[in-house]
Recover the amino acids of this structure.
């Protein structure tokens, strides 16, 4: 079990080395080094997993305290790892997908002047994410939670010369901080009620049924935790940062903003399931947020032109599914979908990265087209990802989404209706994307020329551009043909393609193949998630409906986008502007709120508060200015004053004496 | 009580004074070459003595250590009396660490002899304030800090330095008038309770002043509070701060923000809570409200600043409001967090002002509208700056988070809504700090950065100790907390005993015994006799028990 | 034959009044100086008178003190006046008003 320490130690060591020596390690070496660290971490995770597997299912939870962090009075927080089915499952796909994406990045980031910095952040991210999931208490987990936020900040703003990237990074961090506000309040409440943050103290008695929690307490804690989860997982109302976060390099989008970090909220809700159990209200909130988000984001995804923004909104939408499942009480389904989503969404992003790479930084789908002829590996990979996301059987998404929808149906048909509508939209926008990118006329010649013009601004847009000009000379901008990426990039694609096609076997709900369900069973006993069954008949009906709807969306997308590229009637402005929500908030913040703050700074503070202080000083000076007139400088005036004063005193004394 | 052969605390107070005198006496002809090495020797020597003191300080003890007491003006009960406990220990350490960095890190022009002399005088006065166990000595030291502060700002400051220095001096001096009156009142009013003997001794006063009439305690506390609120400064007494910190030279800003701030906060704890606990308990909600309001107000005002140094100065207002919030939560976590924040803020703000000075040196301006994209030319500076910014924001794993979290959690269990208001700083802090960072380091570079070089090795070496402190205290604050918590719990027990309505939840006198020398014990004997083992304030025993057993303590 | 004490006191009062008036109305520094001397000696006269009247030697002792102080004052005062006249031949008291606020 000591391999557990190595799980976190390897990426940590990698990050440290790259931080201090990164600028001395040359271009590909630091990438390989980081990949080795991530892969080593994955191997260690597998070792720990197999060790746990060898134990009876009831004793698969091991707590390893590293050292005491904050001991103050009754507060006692440690750095400690909890190895249990939930944390190990998450670690497995974080390190697994993480290693693949680190490997992919070696090719993608080649030639970037800050190559090592990128891999420092990647390793630091994997480390933080592992802390998040492996911690044995909420506060240590919060350290990882913030750590991934920090790495996300550094990676979204990786090309910081671009103002848009710098702004997006800040927006992501600040939005997450709103969630952290909730998380911290939840921590305070937890300390007040349990006197601890440790899972073994807070959660274990609740999970085993030895303790109960007042409904109001459970509701408060849950809502505050969910606020944190909502920010991290980009759900309503804090989802706006994720599409903007696509300013980061594409591997970052794949790793952080699709596969792992954004699912941290899903993890947190699953982890806090014993608390949520005592608050049906909170469960409804989670389910409603999930249902609302998955639908809203899907509608927006239907009209985006940027290949990565489509995928970003799709991520928001898919995480909505996960929340929907968790809110409906079927945590396993939510986690199943999380894992499947990690596979196919990472695949989609990496393929998209490969496409962007091939087109020298073109991200607008309307300037792509016909790429299936040029990208022999990327094309099938993307197609598999597409089919998995669109929930076409028998690919990953179909199976996990089926379970989510069944749980939603059990909770409420209304929630299910949102889910099934989203399923249609998902298939629609993905087939639109595939149609625009891989079929039709090739529109990228003009695009490359336009890019060449854009390049004159002197701001390097990405290393792919740098790489492009290095590999092909400046002529590449004019009309170089799209080309397949190097092998470091295609190998991860192939592995993820296989995972997206067959990963569902990890939890197929027939023939006893439901490994994930069985593995997670000790985490979600009946005292945590009230078991329910949806009858086989209903499941069949729901599954058939979902399949039909998915195919319907697929045909709709494929059909409607067969020829024309510009179809404004299918892209209403209010969707293109994402329901004006983001713009509305921006206008409020930069308008009235900024005016108010300015008034505070320069009128209230500089004027009133400081004015009062200076006013005291000024009035003292003014009084002095008046009084100085008495000081004539003439001796006789002073002498007269002395005389008069003396006379007055004498007069007073004599009158007092007389009376 | 630890007794060592050498008068350690006296050395710590007088060594910088000797440094001041010696640096003045360096002959003018040799000044250019020799002043700095000599000053460096004194500053590092001081640091070595302080390091020895920290290393020798026993953990788990609540009383004053290394006490040195000599009668001075006997007929008024004034003595030269020094001592250090868990609360002042790390403030002294931080002072000794920050001064060498401030003296030798930033570059400054002008006469090195007088600059170093003023700095050393300031260091000696700060040390004296933190270490004094006599109100008279405290007051003198507290006031003496103003003189070098004034001359450093007025002599080496920016364009409006005279205005800023004058404002700084007059404003804080006006506040001190209240302190002086409160001290005299306390001493005179306490004399009848002390067998008719006047005394300025902190410990004796703490023992007897709980028998003062309630109204007197409140008035005296108000006197302390006004004086220290100006010094800290709490909103709305803060308006001297932005001018002073913006105009001060880099070294001046570092020590002013890093240490002089703390004198006020420390005074609030040592004089306010310790000497007039009932007054403190009664006025606690007022100060909590001021602190919470200060956090919100300070955040809003900070966000809109147009100058990097001014923004950092305003951000300090928010940070110190956290300290006060923690103190008046009257919980073990809150007060310990407040003490922790004092040290944190010294390290973090010291480092920030240092880095801001470097930015000013490189770009010749600190206006946001004229800055941008500096990370391209100075990647190492940007990385260090980002680390410090993250510490200021409160990223877990760095020191800022530990203090902020302890303060907030400690406040939450006693005064929930104040803590909720305070927690908003988690969001606003990120907004203004990251905005500043983005403006300076991100985006396309403005102006010509071709000649801009990265941070030099000398500067890295200067800031490195602060960075180490930032990371170490964030990851492993236990050695620190183990030494602070007993003193804090003891102080809280004292408050609770004097004012049973003060809502001190995490530590109760019934449950805790304190390791305090008999002649220092200010708790009444009735409580000491009813010792019950176990309970929540286990920090006093040096071993913390699993929190689950102490549910009652936090309910 | 003895003069009644009241006469001495009246004389002293007249002398003091002359001195005080002179100090206030004259601008010649030397004259002002002499006026001060006049007032001092008026006081001395009062002291002596009362010493005789009350048969208390203390009053006469005070006179000695006043004489000594006056002598010292003359030394300093004349020095200042001489210094003043050296700088400006026709100086009056009103010319020296550096202390004007």
């Amino acid at each position: 079990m000591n391999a557990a320490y190595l799980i976190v130690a390897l990426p940590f060591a990698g990050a440290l080395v790259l931080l201090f020596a990164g600028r001395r390690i040359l271009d590909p070496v630091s990438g390989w080094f980081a990949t080795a660290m991530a892969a080593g971490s994955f191997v260690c995770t597998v070792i720990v997993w197999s060790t746990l597997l060898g134990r009876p299912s009831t004793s698969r939870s091991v707590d390893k305290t590293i050292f005491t962090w904050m001991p103050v009075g009754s507060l006692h927080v440690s750095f400690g790892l909890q190895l249990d089915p939930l944390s190990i499952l998450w670690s497995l796909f974080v390190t697994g997908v993480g290693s693949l994406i680190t490997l992919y990045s070696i090719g993608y980031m080649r030639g970037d002047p800050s190559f090592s910095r990128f891999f420092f952040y990647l390793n630091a991210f994997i480390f933080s994410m592992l802390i998040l999931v492996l911690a044995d208490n909420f506060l240590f987990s919060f350290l990882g939670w913030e750590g991934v936020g920090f790495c996300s900040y550094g990676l979204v703003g990786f090309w910081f010369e671009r103002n848009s990237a710098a702004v997006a990074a800040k927006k992501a961090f600040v939005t997450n901080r709103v969630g952290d506000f909730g998380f911290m309040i939840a921590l305070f409440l937890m300390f007040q009620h349990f006197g601890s943050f440790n899972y073994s103290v807070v959660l274990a008695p609740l999970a085993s049924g030895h303790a109960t929690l007042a409904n109001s307490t459970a509701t408060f804690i849950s809502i505050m935790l969910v606020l944190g989860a909502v920010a991290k997982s980009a759900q309503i109302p804090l989802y706006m940062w994720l599409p903007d976060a696509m300013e980061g390099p594409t591997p970052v989008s794949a790793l952080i903003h699709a596969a792992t970090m954004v699912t941290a909220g899903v993890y947190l809700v699953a982890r806090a399931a014993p608390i949520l159990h005592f608050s049906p209200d909170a469960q409804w909130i989670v389910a409603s947020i999930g249902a609302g988000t998955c639908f809203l984001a899907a509608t927006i995804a239907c009209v985006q032109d940027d290949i990565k923004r489509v995928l970003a909104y799709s991520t928001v939408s898919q995480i909505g599914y996960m929340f929907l499942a968790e809110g409906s009480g079927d945590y396993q389904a939510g986690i199943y979908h999380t894992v499947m989503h990690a596979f196919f969404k990472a695949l989609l992003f990496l393929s998209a990265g490969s496409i962007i790479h091939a087109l020298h930084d073109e991200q607008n789908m309307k300037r792509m087209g016909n790429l299936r002829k040029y990208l022999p590996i990327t094309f099938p990979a993307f197609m598999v990802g597409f089919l998995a996301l669109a929930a076409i059987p028998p690919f990953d998404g179909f199976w996990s989404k089926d379970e989510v929808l069944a749980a939603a149906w059990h909770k409420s048909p209304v929630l299910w209706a949102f889910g099934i509508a989203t399923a249609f939209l998902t298939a629609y926008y993905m087939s639109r994307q595939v149609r625009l990118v891989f079929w039709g006329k090739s529109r990228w010649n003009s695009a490359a020329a336009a890019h060449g013009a854009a390049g004159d601004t002197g701001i390097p847009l990405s290393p792919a551009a740098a790489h492009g000009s290095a590999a092909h000379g400046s002529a590449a901008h004019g009309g170089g043909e799209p080309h397949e990426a190097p092998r470091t990039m295609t190998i991860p694609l192939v592995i993820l393609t296989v995972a997206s096609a067959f990963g569902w076997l990890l939890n197929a709900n027939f023939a006893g193949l439901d490994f994930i369900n069985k593995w997670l069973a000790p985490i979600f006993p009946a005292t945590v998630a009230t078991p329910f069954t949806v009858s086989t008949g209903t499941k069949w009906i729901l599954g058939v409906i979902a399949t039909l709807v998915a195919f319907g969306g697929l045909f709709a997308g494929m059909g409607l986008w067969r020829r024309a590229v510009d179809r404004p009637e299918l892209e209403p402005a209010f969707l293109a502007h994402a329901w004006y929500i983001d713009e509305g908030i921006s206008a409020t913040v930069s308008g009235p709120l900024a005016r108010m703050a300015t008034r505070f700074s320069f009128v209230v503070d500089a004027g009133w508060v400081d004015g009062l202080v200076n006013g005291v000083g000024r009035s003292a000076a003014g009084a002095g200015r008046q009084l100085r007139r008495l000081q004539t400088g003439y001796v006789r005036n002073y002498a007269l004053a002395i005389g008069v004063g003396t006379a007055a005193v004498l007069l007073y004394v004599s009158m007092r004496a007389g009376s | 009580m630890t007794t060592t052969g050498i008068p350690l605390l006296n050395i710590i107070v007088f060594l910088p004074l000797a440094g001041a005198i010696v640096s003045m006496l360096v002959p003018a002809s040799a000044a250019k070459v020799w002043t700095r090495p000599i000053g460096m020797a004194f500053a590092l020597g001081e640091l070595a003595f302080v390091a020895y003191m920290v290393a020798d300080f026993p953990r788990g003890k609540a009383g004053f250590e290394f006490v040195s007491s000599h009668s001075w003006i006997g007929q008024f009960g004034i003595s030269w009396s020094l001592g250090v406990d868990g609360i002042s220990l790390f403030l002294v350490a931080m002072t000794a660490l920050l001064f060498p960095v401030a003296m030798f890190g930033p570059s400054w022009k002008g006469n090195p002899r007088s600059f170093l002399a003023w700095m050393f005088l300031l260091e000696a006065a700060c040390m004296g304030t933190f270490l004094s166990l006599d109100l008279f000595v405290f007051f003198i030291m507290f006031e003496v800090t103003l003189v070098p502060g004034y001359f450093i700002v007025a002599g080496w400051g920016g364009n409006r330095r005279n205005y800023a220095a004058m404002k700084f001096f007059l404003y804080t001096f006006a506040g001190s008038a209240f302190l002086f009156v409160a001290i005299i009142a306390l001493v005179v009013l306490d004399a009848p309770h002390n067998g008719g003997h006047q005394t300025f001794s902190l410990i004796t006063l703490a023992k007897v002043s709980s028998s003062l009439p309630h109204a007197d305690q409140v008035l005296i506390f108000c006197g302390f509070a006004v004086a220290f609120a100006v010094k800290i400064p709490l909103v709305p007494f803060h308006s001297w701060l932005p001018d002073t910190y913006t105009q001060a030279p880099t070294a001046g800003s570092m020590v002013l923000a890093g240490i002089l701030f703390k004198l006020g906060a420390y005074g609030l704890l040592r004089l306010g809570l310790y000497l007039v606990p009932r007054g403190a308990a009664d006025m606690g909600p007022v100060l909590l409200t001021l602190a919470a309001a200060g956090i919100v107000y300070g955040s809003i005002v900070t966000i809109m600043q147009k100058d990097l140094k001014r923004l950092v100065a305003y951000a300090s207002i928010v940070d110190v409001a956290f300290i006060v919030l923690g103190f008046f939560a009257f919980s073990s976590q809150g007060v310990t967090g407040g003490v922790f924040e004092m040290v944190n803020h010294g390290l973090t703000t010291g480092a920030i002002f240092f880095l801001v000075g470097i930015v000013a040196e490189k770009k010749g301006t600190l206006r946001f509208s004229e800055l941008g994209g500096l990370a391209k030319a100075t990647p190492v500076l940007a990385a260090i700056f980002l680390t410090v910014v993250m510490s200021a924001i409160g990223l877990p794993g760095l020191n800022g988070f530990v203090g902020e979290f302890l303060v907030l959690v400690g406040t939450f269990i006693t005064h929930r809504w104040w803590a909720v208001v305070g927690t908003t700083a988690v969001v606003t802090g990120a907004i203004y700090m990251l905005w500043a960072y983005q403006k300076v380091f991100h985006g396309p570079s403005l102006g010509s950065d071709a000649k801009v070089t990265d941070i030099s090795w000398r500067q890295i070496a200067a800031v490195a100790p602060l960075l180490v402190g930032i990371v170490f205290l964030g990851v492993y604050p236990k050695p620190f907390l183990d030494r602070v918590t007993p003193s804090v719990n003891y102080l809280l027990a004292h408050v609770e005993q004097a004012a049973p309505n003060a809502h001190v939840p995490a530590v109760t006198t019934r449950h805790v015994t304190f390791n305090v020398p008999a002649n220092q014990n200010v708790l009444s004997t009735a409580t000491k006799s009813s010792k019950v083992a176990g309970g929540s304030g286990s920090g006093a025993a040096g071993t913390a028990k699993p929190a689950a057993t102490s549910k009652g303590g936090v309910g | 034959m003895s003069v009644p004490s009241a006469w001495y006191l009246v004389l002293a009062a007249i002398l003091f009044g002359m001195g005080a008036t002179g100090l206030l109305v004259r601008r010649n520094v030397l004259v002002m100086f002499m006026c001060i001397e006049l007032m001092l000696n008026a006081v001395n006269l009062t002291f002596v008178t009362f010493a005789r009247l009350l048969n208390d030697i203390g009053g006469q002792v005070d006179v000695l003190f006043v004489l000594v102080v006056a002598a010292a004052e003359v030394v300093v005062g004349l020095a200042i006046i001489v210094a003043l006249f050296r700088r400006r031949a026709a100086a009056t008291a009103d010319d020296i008003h550096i202390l004007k606020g």
Notes: Confidence is low (pLDDT under 50) at residues 449-479 of chain A. Chain A touches chain B through 64 residues (CB under 8 Å). DSSP finds 28 helices and two strands in chain A. The longest strand of chain A covers residues 62-72.
